[in-house]
Design brief:
- The chain is mainly alpha-helical.
- It has a domain of 189 residues.
- The longest helix has 34 residues.
- It starts with a helix and ends in an 8-residue tail after the last helix.
Length: 316
Amino acid sequence: MRLFRKCKLYVFLLLFYGFLASIFLLHGQLYTQNDNYEVPDWDERVRKVGSVCNNTPVLLPSPPQLQQTDLPQPLKKHFLNLFGNDLVLNIARIPALNLDWCLVPKVASTSLSKLFLPYLPETEEIPAPFIQKEVWQKAGHLTLEQFNSGQNSRFLISRHPFARISSAYRNKLEDRTRSHDGNYFFNTYSKQIIKLSRGTVSDDSPEPSFPEFIKFILNSEIYDDDEHWQPVSLRCRLCQLEFTHILRYEELSTDWEYFKQDVSLPPSLLLPWENKGKLGALPEYFKQISREDLEKLGKRYESDFLMFGYRMEDDF
């Protein structure tokens, strides 16, 4: 009986130490795996943006009123304030987290909105129909003076331009029944796209094809782009505003964790996100586009390619 008890003890100890050994081994593997991740060089990412701005600046057009030499000074100052506030129109401030975020649709904006909403002030307004509008409802819009005088960390997320364009088409234009604002996009953009390519349009016209959408983009003024496909560099006014951090959509899971550490966000602030674009479907759209139009499209989004280190040939 004593021998049996000893054997049971030895077996228990063997299993116990085996369990501990497996835990330490797994921990070591995880540590090694995490250690292989390259820590983002935030300063270098910001410097790259500055370098592009110095050589190929993306400028917000000056208001026509400011070009009048005989404009009274008070009126000129008024227009200058309006012009300045346009620069920060897309910056959402989250005071509780000391963050200023350039909200860019089709770049994890839904996930970030869900994350930030609990940290924004409550309002008495009726809840907005979609989550990004609810962010603006609670955050409001900054003035340029407020932005420049703040000490918040300022960040945005980049995404490969071609991935963002095809994602916007798939979600907003390919099928008007697919999203809550499908009819709005059909009436506002699809009808323009169809008329440009086919000459005539009606309410029952089939949705625009992707090549027709690209033709529309290439024939549009870039400053009139919808927010879902306007270049990130222009939407966030990267040649006029200074940001502290630029995250990449393609590495957002790891970038977000390093970003949290760098700006001292709560460790519990987990990003409810996955890269849904990495399904292999988005590049298929571009197989329909001629090389000539691809080159034109690359030129149109050149600032995004250069600032964020993307290439037309990247796998997105």
